Structure prediction request, 50 residues.
Amino acid sequence: MHSKTKPKTIKPKDEDKEQRERFIKAARAIGVDESGKEFEAAVKRIVRPK
Prediction:
């Protein structure tokens, strides 16, 4: 029988948290759209409608 154990969760390192915060700050500084509307508009321009 296989034992049912929970997979270990990986906790982010402090370095990862700092990098994530820098990434978010930089994204906000350049005005990245978090809603995905800009991405959807770009995809619609390059993909043929079904």
The chain has a mean pLDDT of 82. The CA atoms of residues 40 and 46 lie 10 Å apart. The radius of gyration is 19 Å.
